[in-house]
Amino acid sequence: MAAGLALLAGCSERQSEEARFMSAPEAKVGDALSGELTTASSINLNDGARYSPHWVCPGEATGAVASYVLDAAFPGVLAAFGKDGGLRGVAEGREGAPLSLLVGAGHKACTLIVVSGSDATSFGPYRLVPQAHASAEQLLLDTPLTGSLGEDGKSSHVMTLEQAGRLDLALASGGALVLSLRGEGREERVQACADGEQRLEAYLEPGDYRVEVTAAATGNAMTATSGCGSDTLVLGNAYRLMASADDLATGMRNEGPLRGGDSITGVLEGGAQNRYHLNVDEPSEVSIELSSAQFDALLNLEGEGLSLSNDDGGGGINGTDALLETVLLPGRYEVAVSGYGAAGGDYTLEMQRSAFEGELRNDGEILLEESLVGILDGSGPNSYRLTLEEAASIRVMLGSSSFDAVLRLHGNGIDISDDDSGGNLDALLSAVLEPGSYTLEAQSYSGAGAYRLEVVGDAIEEELRNGGEVRVGDAVIGTLSPGGTLDYELVLEEGATIVLEATSPTADTILSLSGNGVEIENDDADGLGLGSRITQYLEAGRYGVGVRTWDVGGGSGAIRLEVRD
What we know:
Elements: H1 2-7, E1 26-28, E2 33-37, E3 42-43, E4 50-57, E5 65-72, E6 76-81, E7 87-92, E8 100-103, E9 111-117, E10 124-133, E11 145-148, E12 154-161, E13 165-173, E14 177-183, E15 186-190, E16 193-194, E17 197-204, E18 207-215, E19 232-235, E20 238-246, E21 250-252, E22 256-257, E23 263-268, E24 274-280, E25 284-291, E26 297-303, E27 306-310, E28 322-328, E29 331-339, E30 345-355, E31 364-365, E32 370-376, E33 382-388, E34 392-399, E35 404-411, E36 414-418, E37 427-433, E38 436-446, E39 449-459, E40 463-464, E41 467-470, E42 475-480, E43 486-492, E44 496-503, E45 509-515, E46 518-522, E47 532-538, E48 541-549, E49 557-564
Parallel strand pairs: 1-4, 8-19, 21-23, 22-24, 31-33, 40-42, 41-43
Antiparallel strand pairs: 2-10, 3-4, 4-9, 5-8, 5-10, 6-7, 6-9, 11-20, 12-18, 13-17, 13-20, 14-15, 14-18, 16-17, 23-30, 24-29, 25-28, 25-30, 26-27, 26-29, 32-39, 33-38, 34-37, 34-39, 35-36, 35-38, 42-49, 43-48, 44-47, 44-49, 45-46, 45-48
């Protein structure tokens, strides 16, 4: 089409500089233009389309940008020529987007504007209806903004995003311009064309930004954009900006921000990682789940000195989904989606977030009847100090949905630990402790993340002993180490039927009685759960009483041994 329009110019070298290469009605910038394509209209030589020309000359200086929209009964083409016949630009209509003309305030020369049809069958009336636009500093979403470069070749506009989203900036112009965006620690610029305009796409957090339009330096690679075709014909230093933003809470995307309530889909290329970012402005409980039916999902979260990962914590149809549940302090974090063994495919990523109401502490003093939340970052255990003023029977629970919890208690000659006695990979320790100071260590067998540590206990009246003599009427409490045995000596002054019971809140006890021809053992007694009971008539004398656990490698904790008749 441009070549055909150029043919209507003829040869301009034989004319003076003041002469116009073509006669046509004249109007001032800002005046309405109208006409009609008929069988009597001039014909483009290459495609037979009819055309109608208008000379548009500068009017009074207003400092404004004049914009026109073509209202026509046919799909049109707009072209601009200088007075010597040189082509200044072409804009062709496309479905759903009306043709427009922008004339910058700095445009000083008369220009021939040619309205033509898209082919030889295009006929009918048309109007180019003008609108004047004052300079605007604020760029609003979904609202076109027209502007022009200043004398320094630059122009800028402020823009505010109320929520995180994917921003799409479109710039229509007639020359080689650089489109850039700055703010909230981000800087983006673009030179590529998309759908006939320069386009800038970026995932942005809420905040204030500045959009800048700058003339490209001579020889700069940005000059490639001068060939960016468009449905807008631009003369002079004018341009049009349009900004839009998607909420991103749902839909498909492989990057961008994550927020509470987001449920998105993505596609992972084999061997690659898709990265998202998460901004936290207050201590928050966060749950991020990655699920896929096509690959074994891996989740990683890093930021503010924290590094967490999960493989199969989310379960799923194949048991290979990933789940990270943790507490995050204010800051910026990055979430990476990948597949085990460099696999890829479709996935779903969901995030839930709520304000953290509890106390977050990774070390220091912990008291009886206290519960706290901490975070293991994978660098080692978190240690707490427990001080007892009197003997107590305690239970310590360490639970996490992010890692396999391991709990250790040591001090005052005690050193016991537990891995999975609390169920669901949680740890549970039960012990009877003398007054003094002890250390509790929150550890991980594998993984890292947030956990809850709780200590409960009661002062005890029973005697604390891991051995020695026991008699009818005695009740003693001992602490059993994994794989160990508590050995007591039962002393009877006279023959009697006695009852021995060994119970524990954390261990499956096995009770044994031996001596004077007696060899008896019991594991689980009726009414005692995993406790043990022996009822036996014994002659006067001394007998050995032993308590161990059914789980030789892992059972431990406080054991209560009672002797009665």
